[in-house]
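Anyone able to model this chain together with NAP?
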Amino acid sequence: MRLFDLTGKVAIVTGSSRGIGRSIAENLAAAGARVVISSRKAQACEEVAQSIRVAGGHALAIAANISDQQQMGELVARTREQLGPIDVLVCNAASNPYYGPTTGLSDEVFAKVMHNNVLSNIWLCNLVRPDMEARRNGAIILVSSVGGLHGSAVIGAYNISKAADMQLARNLAVEWGPHNIRVNCIAPGVVRTDFARAIHEDPKVRAMVERELPLRRIGEPDDIGGIALMLASAAGNYITGQVIVADGGAMIR
Ligand SMILES: NC(=O)c1ccc[n+]([C@@H]2O[C@H](COP(=O)([O-])OP(=O)(O)OC[C@H]3O[C@@H](n4cnc5c(N)ncnc54)[C@H](OP(=O)(O)O)[C@@H]3O)[C@@H](O)[C@H]2O)c1
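re: yes, here you go
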């Protein structure tokens, strides 16, 4: 499994206390990476880090809120101090505070969505770039959404932010490619996490959604975790600026 080996690599995964981020962190750790588990809640992060250590992996918990630039700086600085230069960054945490039409969207809420889902990713990418540039090697993964590929009457602001992440990946891939830093997005469809609880916890809604999917099921966190492993490792060495869609076939219908 040489192409998927991450032995000794240092990876930060935001929003890794549960859901997709947790699966990404667990898969990177299983491949040998030393992973930083991060979310707003220290205890939840420590529990995940502990379960990775029990499984034989290497993990460190550092709580940080993606909305706070100082905390993002501290997350990267503490990772460097305790584990060394950063090889892999996964910007996975995001917010979706508004459900409704764009007509009723306040400036404050729109700014918050763009702040957490796009600006924070720009901060983090810039914070880890010097480490990656110095070693002429780095992989950055932004967890976007298929929402960034289609219109919506109810989660429009979130979808704008997720489309912006796709463009951010393309821009940084062009800017930083000469330093051998790869930047890609994963665009999940519906995945069974707290984030999509409204869909998977209501059997009627879930059945309606699954009926329309070519694979006839919503996604599991590990359906995304494995893609992150591929993009973070040598298996993904020639992929940059791309959006990998994992949606059970929703977008090709
Ligand atoms: N699930 C889906 O159907 C789906 C589909 C497409 C895209 N996505 C994307 O996948 C990513 C992960 O979502 P998920 O489904 O795994 O969600 P989730 O299960 O709700 O997990 C979200 C994670 O982010 C953390 N988090 C939330 N706000 C944060 C903040 N301000 N600062 C730091 N950490 C924060 C949460 O921990 P704390 O609460 O402790 O902070 C948790 O670890 C998101 O970017 C989402 O947009 C999800």
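Residues 14-21, 39-41, 44, 65-67, 92-95, 116, 143, 145, 188, 190-191, 193-196 surround NAP (CB under 6 Å).
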